[in-house]
Amino acid sequence: MTDLAIRQRLFEYIRFADEKKIKAIYTIVEDEIKEKRHIWTKEFTAEMERRSLQMEKGNIGKDWSSVKAKGRALISKKK
Questions:
Q1: pTM for the predicted model, two decimal places
Q2: pLDDT by residue (tens digit) across 23-49?
């Protein structure tokens, strides 16, 4: 089963599951959910703003073909 199919099945299940099951599922993933919320720290936001300004000025950034090539090389390495 693909990741997308699993996500869809889980979404549908959660939409109609009873309260007890929802709380049990949440308990399993609660720590991970809280971790992901904290990615937007002041430092992270400042860094993203800095990079955005640099890109607008044309000082950094890569074209799509080089990004795609690097991604494919990384995937090939893992196989």
A1: 0.41
A2: 999 999 888 887 766 667 888 889 888
**Share of residues in the chain with pLDDT > 90 (%):** 33
Contacts made by residues 21-26, CB under 8 angstroms, sequence distance 24+: none
**Tokens 């799509």, located at residue:** 64
For 65, the token pair is 């073909």
CA–CA dist 75, 26 (Å, integer): 32
Cα→Cα distances 64→47, 61, 68, 70, Å: 22, 10, 6, 10
Judge contact between 60 and 54, C-beta under 8 A.
yes
Determine the Cα–Cα distance for residues 55 and 58; give it in Å rounded to an integer: 5
